[in-house]
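The pair is quoted verbatim below.
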Amino acid sequence: MLFGETIAVALRSIRANLLRSGLTMLGIIIGVGAVITMVALGSGAQRAIEDQIENMGARLLSIYAGQSFNHGVASSNRVSLRTADAEALTRGATQLSAVVPEIRSSMQIKLGNTNINTDVTGTTANYTEVRNFTIAHGRMFTTGDDESRKRVAVLAYAVPEMLDANPQALINQTIFIRGIPFEVIGVLAEKGAGGSYSNPDEQVLIPVQTAQYRVFGSDRLRSISVEVAEGVPLEQGMVDIERILRREHKIPPGGANDFRIRGRQEILATRQEATEVFTYLLASIAGVSLLVGGIGIMNIMLVSVTERTREIGVRKALGATRTNILSQFLIEALTLCLLGGLIGVLLGAGAAVGLARFAGWNTLVSPGAAVVAFGFSGVIGVFFGLWPARRAAMLDPIEALRYE
């Protein structure tokens, strides 16, 4: 029997039992669709995390005050970062492209009769550039404003709404920070939390020297953000920071650092690992449904072999070989699985797009995942269809003809 005729016979058998064939494919459809959807959700979440890393600054490091030690014993006096440390980094660092000191505290902001409490951050003019902020209205304060200790303020995206005011109308208006009048000169565009502990869209920026001398009355910094120069490994930038700060803090050789250096990627790395594990878990669960679908294929094919025993005997009596019978039933199982896999891929991709459009979830349909899921459905068709096909091929033609 020609191979083309074998395929035609297999397809006619599937068409003759469309309802049963559709129900048989259902397990494969659900399994493949679930795999595509779950992988799309995981890939979308990972892409969102990568976008957050890029948004936060992939080359950005943060320096925080640590614990001082005396002969290996932690001191009760907590070391402070000061503006002098930031100035030393600016002067002496060779591997850094920007240094941004930050003095921050929650304070009362007043506009007219509206009062709110939010973070006030004293920083330098390059804060928005280093942190990838965009000016929506007005301008950022300059180095000259900082050196002159001007009382000017730039509001983050959410602050105007908190003050019940129009962002653009706030430009050149006066707000009071801790009772001190400040002129609003700019409003930032939306940034998003991006995995930070605090929301950067809910802060007020003022020049660091204004903050130090007019508002906070202290040169103690909450943190120092530094940007490692392009092409320089983060580890090399950390070594440069340690070299300068250890000298400034007079830490002897072999002594422990009294400051901490953290990369923005560290904060999101754990989330990314958890997302990957979650994706693999969901994909594994979806893969189980594929196996269940394969078992369903095998059961139906075994039933089909039993129902068509006499037909198999007639075909063998007319000259069909064992290979012909094996190929016919194997093609039937493979066709059911591949067709179910194709429908599953389309449904899974459609579900991922629907979740992104209507539920607002981050999804990313991976062509590689679609190909693997479709190919796996074919493997399941061969694996679970082989036993019924072999059983059909091994039937004795005389016994098959006697079967009622």
About this structure: Confidence is low (pLDDT under 50) at residues 71-76. The first strand starts at residue 60 and ends at 65.
